[in-house]
Amino acid sequence: MPTLALDTSSGIAVAIVGQDGPLAAARLDSDRQHAERLSPLIASALADARLRPADIDRVVVGTGPAPFTGLRAGLVAARTFAYARGIPVFGVCSLDAVALSAAEQLTLPVGTRLLVLSDARRKEVYARRYRIEQSDDAPLGAIPIDAGRSFARAGEPWVSRPAEISFEDESSYVVASPTPIGVLSGSGIGTDRSDLGVDPALLVRVADADLAAGADLPADPLYLRRPDAQVPGPAKKAG
Hints:
By secondary structure, this protein is α+β, with helices and mostly antiparallel strands. Helix content is 24%, strand content 30%.
């Protein structure tokens, strides 16, 4: 079941994922011209995977949270690709992929409380909390990390100023995406050089786990606030 996975919540990232894992990937670390650059990137990934668009069976897309323009371009591209071929499209919170990447690359132990942050502009961040659980005791809907660990979402994503976020205890970790600034715990901050941005292939793993649990995965955007650009109101009449 070849899957086209893409995310434009931070830059532009595309992956072609087969039954046994990623077949090809392409990325542009740019927050501009998403609509113009996304189609060539998809074509490049398909060529690297030696597949045609008709070979793709489904689409998985990151739904943010993210600023309006870039996120919208990815969702429109995903829906258009799926509609043209009569295949399903599923949406996954982009922060979920960052959480899975952090849990794997940082080998976070069971009991860790994970807080994932990404740049929301306007001196704000998008945030979502997670817990690393033992797989045998994990709640329904938890996402498998490996044989012994899963991660569970601890609430919905939100947008906030960093100073307004509380850090619950010393097992809390903070991962800043797309450019990791470090991992923050109760004992201080330590530099981390891992790539903890949104990996579209991990979006597919999250989607598979959610679908297996019976979740509905609409490809609807998580903007969490109004667009930066607003339509001006009617001009006031001169008094």
